[in-house]
Amino acid sequence: MTTSTLDRRGAGSESTGREHRLRWFVLAVIALAQLMVVLDATIVNIALPAAQRSLEFSDADRQWVVTAYALAFGSLLLLGGRLSDLFGRRNTFVVGLVGFAAMSAVGGAAVNFGMLVAARAGQGVFAALLAPAALSLLATTFTEPNERARAFGIFGAIAGAGGAIGLLLGGVLTEWTSWRWSLYVNLIFAAVALVGALTMMAPHRAEHRPRLDIPGTVTVSAALFSIVYGFSHAESHGWSDAATIAWLVAGAVLLSAFVVIETRVAHPLLPLRIVLDRTRGGSYLAMFLTGSGMFAVFLFLTYYLQTTLQYSPIVTGVAFLPMVVAMVVSATTSTGVLLPRVGPRLLIVTGLVLGAAGLAYLAQLEVDSSYAPHILPGLVLLGLGMGTVFAPAMQGAITGVQPEDSGVASATVNTMQQVGGSIGTALLSTVAATAAANYLSDATPGPLTPALAAVESYTTTFWWAAAIFVSGAITSAFLLPGGKLPAPEPGAAVVAAH
Questions:
Q1: Of 29, 174, 203, 402, which one is least surrounded by beta carbons within 10 A?
Q2: Could you tell me the pTM of the whole model?
Q3: What does the alpha-carbon distance between residue 299 and residue 495 come to, in Å, rounded to a whole number?
């Protein structure tokens, strides 16, 4: 079983007390690192056109700047979570920070397309170490129920809002400085977080380290890579393409093989007891479906604001701020006030319904819609809904896990969100392209026809995303158990309050 140096007497006890006193500063450090990881999924999107002009790569190659990050991040998250369990949460957190910063510096200094893509893949590798370590540190730093609820509310709000913040920050940096600063800015985030980690977090290490599940690690990493790549390939080449089908079938077969392996090895990478618990399993599924639908808003509403309404990148980012505020309010309220009273099922189901309502509202957009009456209410509803899902689902997803499993349980949450986002983006991009093509084939050509076709494609994806949220609400209502979260089992928390 993994134990912590914080559990020892002497210097360990002193470190425990000091870390407990500084726990809210530790939360700030963890939240900053999580923000850096999440916003990097979108911050580069705004900078892509400028990077493309600077490095002179083609439209066909452009998607790899985004896909390389998603592939490495999504496929290695479970391994990163288990390494956090084996080698210590703080150690893994620090390595992830340093590596992420180094890869960001390489990307910012890129002199050609290959160097930029390699750096983005490197960012994904170190993000796979950093993200599960951050959530695991949060779970073991806050053990008192009320404080834990508030901490998870803040963390969940950042996890959900990071994509929108990335759009704003990317727009500001691209307009006012250079596209390279959308990568260089991570050096500032990482430096602040690194100082905080080294000065405020006590080291943790495993006294008894089980062997790493090599067959499981290889199989699930290959499975997740195949699935994410298959959906990315479908986005550009179509669902009937032979390579798309081959990658997706390979991913499904490898994932099935992984489940079989995990039932037979002595030290499984992902013990099935983690995902078979109804509270945790339901929380993982909620994160997956929310991620699948959420990225439709970031992607297609950004297109709508910039290409249809002609907003600048900065104004586009500002337009998302009400959603961020609503998400922060609902995430902190849902975990700090409501979760201890009603449990996760009611909150997650309500959040998904609110999110679906917001998406349905946005699906009414037209070419001449304006922000305040036609966009703002939908964004606020969506923010309230996602905040009500993310924070309770994150807390539910690690409820009752033993310390030696906290890293991989945390990684599973991130995996669900990341893979869900990749699948949702590919699926809804195909839906958008089909809707636009169908509109153009039926419409009478005119000066507004291309714009009308584009809006048709966006609103169709919003309807589909709303349907994903509704399906998530129905599934969560049946899968998640009612009532409050179960009390932590003995030994489930590592850092005791002093």
A1: 203
A2: 0.83
A3: 40
What is the SS3 assignment for 212? coil
> Comparing C-alpha atoms, which of 461, 476, 470, 472 is closest to residue 356?
470
> Hey, how many other C-beta atoms are within 10 angstroms of the C-beta on 265?
15
Sequence-ordered list of residues with C-beta below 8 angstroms from that of 5, at least 6 positions apart, any chain: 12, 15, 202, 203, 204, 205
Q: What does the DSSP 8-state code read for residue 298? A: I
The Cα-based distances of 102 to 46, 69, 123, 127, 192 in angstroms read 22, 15, 8, 12, 14
Instruction: Report pLDDT digits (tens) over 31-52.
Output: 889 888 888 877 887 788 788 8
DSSP 62-79: HHHHHHHHHHHHHHHHHH
Contact yes or no for 424/465 (Cβ under 8 A) = yes
pLDDT tens figures, 178-223: 889 999 999 999 999 999 999 888 776 655 566 788 899 999 999 9
Amino acid at 20: H
What's CA 366's distance to the chain center, in Å? 30
Please check whether residue 294 is in contact with residue 421, taking contact to mean a CB–CB distance below 8 angstroms.
Answer: yes
For domain 5-212+269-479, give the CATH number.
Answer: 1.20.1250.20
CA dist 404 and 401 (Å) reads 8
- Residue corresponding to tokens 């928390």: 493
CA-angle at 34, arms to 75 and 343, nearest 5°: 90
Burial 300-327 (b: 16+ CB within 10 A, else e): bbbbbbbebbebebbbbbebbbbbbbbb
**Two tokens at 50?**
């400028």
Q: Measure the CA–CA gap between 197 and 104, rounded to whole angstroms.
A: 19
